[in-house]
Amino acid sequence: ECYVQNTAREYAKIYAAEAETLEGFGEVPEIIPVFLVHRPANNIPYATVEEELVGEFVKYSVRDGKEVNFLRRDSEAGQKCCTFQHWVYEKTNGSLLVTDLQGVGMKLTDVGIATLAKGYKGFKGNCSISFIEQFRALHQCNKYCEMLGLKSLQATHQKQRKATPMKSKNLPNSSAIKKTVPKKAREPRDFISSEH
Q: Alpha-carbon distance 75 to 172, whole Å?
């Protein structure tokens, strides 16, 4: 827990340094530090300690990326959290995603990190790789993404989806598959844009 949150915190510091130089960007989300405390005389010898966050606790993003969250989409803090996710995703070439962003205002805690199966630079996250795939499919850029000059993920995701059926045609056993799969199941589906 400490390693994940403090790793995400380091990314947030770099993001803040880049975003704060932009005119009109304003306040940047901060991931608060979490500390591991050793208590040898206690029945539970280890505990984590962090700053108490006072106020309305909001989940700006969720681990699985499916939940509709208007506070994430419509609030300044929520939009900046989504931009932070996009920024990390782009900076790590799609290998790492900070997710499960939640907290009070711009102070965040208890975050998660998803990495590709092999990890990223020796680091393996605590969330499934499917969170990266869902983020790539569902993220909608906002004005803060544009201010940072981040590339749209929607065009990239649609290109990948269109390329997939082409690859399957080149498989050596594709003729055997065509004989056993009904025609309707083989027709490509259109990408459906989401409001998430």
A: 50
Q: Give the CATH number of domain 1-155.
A: 3.20.200.10
User: How is residue 120 annotated by DSSP?
Assistant: B
Q: Which residues pair with 113 in a beta bridge?
A: 98
| Residue 37 CB-density burial (10 A; 0-12 exposed, 13-18 middle, 19+ buried) | exposed
- The whole-angstrom separation of Cα 13 and Cα 19 is 10
Half-sphere exposure at residue 93, Cβ-oriented, CA atoms within 13 angstroms = 3
Range name among 14-18, 87-91, 124-128, 149-153 with the lowest pLDDT average? 124-128
Maximal C-alpha separation, the chain: 68
Phi, psi (degrees; rounded to nearest 5) at 181: -105, 130
The pLDDT tens digits of the residues spanning 156-167 come to 545 454 444 443
What is the distance between the alpha carbons of residues 155 and 104, in angstroms, rounded to a whole number?
33
Show which residues are catalytic: 100
Decide: 152 and 141 in contact? Cβ < 8 Å. yes
Q: Which residues pair with 98 in a beta bridge?
A: 113
Take residue 55 and report the two structure tokens written for it: 């106020």
Q: What's this model's pTM, rounded to 2 decimal places? A: 0.74
Is residue 31 a contact partner of residue 5, using CB atoms and an 8 Å limit? yes
Q: What are phi and psi of 45, to 5 degrees?
A: -70, -15
Could you read off the pLDDT of 176-186 as tens digits, one per residue?
Answer: 333 333 333 33
Return the sign of the alpha-carbon dihedral for residues 171, 175, 181, 182.
positive
